[in-house]
Specification:
Elements lengths: L14 H22 L4 H29 L4 H23 L7 H28 L4
Helix pairs in contact: 1-2, 1-4, 2-3
Length: about 140
């Protein structure tokens, strides 16, 4: 069973963002599956690297939209993004350097952060962006 099940409660009803969120969910689920299968460090590192890079790409997409439409909560939202990027980059570096392993606690952190961020911070921008005509 997937660690995160995509469903309508995770949708922000903005197609581009929902598609990117679905990709993030897929990457977290793939990482979780490979961890449970006992895949080697190289396989896990590759997926963790893809997750890190895609997270940065996704955040840039949101941030570009915020700036284009002058979203009033941009600064607070960017602080949330920066905090997660720092945590994921550190997690990846520690994993690559053998200082940590991927555990269920790490996977639950990623799951909780992603779902709570989408359901809280991201859903908060939906009414504003919808009022700007973004679908």
């Amino acid at each position: 069973m997937a660690l995160i099940q995509w469903n309508s409660t995770l949708s922000v009803n903005i197609t581009q963002i929902d598609n990117q969120h679905m990709k993030l969910v897929e990457l977290v689920n793939t990482l979780h599956d490979r961890m449970k299968e006992g895949k080697g460090k190289a396989a896990l590192s590759g997926i963790l690297n893809e997750l890190t890079n895609y997270t940065v790409y996704h955040f840039k997409t949101e941030e570009d939209i915020f700036r284009k439409y002058n979203y009033p909560q941009t600064d607070a939202h960017l602080k949330e993004h920066d905090a997660l990027v720092q945590q994921v980059v550190k997690l990846k570096a520690d994993f690559d350097n053998g200082k940590s392993v991927l555990t269920l606690d790490v996977m639950n952190f990623l799951k909780d952060w992603l779902t709570l961020h989408i359901m809280g911070d991201d859903k908060a921008y939906t009414p504003f962006l919808k009022s700007q005509g973004i679908v």
